[in-house]
Amino acid sequence: MDVQEYLKQGYLLDQRINYHLRRLEETKNMIDGVNSPLIRPDKVKTSPDGEAPYVKAYLKMSELNERINQEIDLLFDLRNQIEEAIRTVGPERHRLVLLYKYIEGRTWEDIGIMLNADKSTVKRWHQEALQMVKMPENPIVIQNMQ
């Protein structure tokens, strides 16, 4: 894994977490739309396996919540490690390009505006900065990030 692939992992993991959060919200909305069972046992509708229709949705939501929490913990550790690697880069504008690009996910145009430089200059600083990054001894590698 090269430096740029390593740095991209933080942004990609953040996007994956956001995707899972949207799915969780959809599942919650689906559960809210399920009618609650009637009090009378003879009127309670169940699925062929005997469970109320909303049970599977709750289980799915619980599993998704657990996955999101694990990914958030991993993202926290990865971002700390990435920020530590970026601290090894000098000058400050090079560090900022890396932070804005890989931690905040900003575009080249946004970074140029923030650093008062044109897009080609920002890209040049980016390439120079990548050459200066010292990879951690044991970099966190997220599976299935490509």
Question: Any overview of this molecule?
Answer:
- The structure is a single chain.
- Helices cover 68% and strands 0% of the residues.
- With 146 residues, the chain is mostly helical.
- It has one domain.
- The protein starts with a helix and ends in a 14-residue tail after the last helix.
- 15% of the residues are buried.
Secondary-structure element order, N to C: HHHHH
Which percent range fits the helix content?
55-70%
Count of individual helical segments: 5
Mean pLDDT equals 87
Compact summary:
By secondary structure, the protein is mainly α. The chain is built from 5 helices and no strands.
Q: Features of this protein?
A:
146 residues, mainly alpha
Write the layout of secondary structure elements.
Elements: H1 3-33, H2 53-86, H3 92-103, H4 108-115, H5 119-132
Helix pairs in contact: 1-2, 2-3, 3-5, 4-5
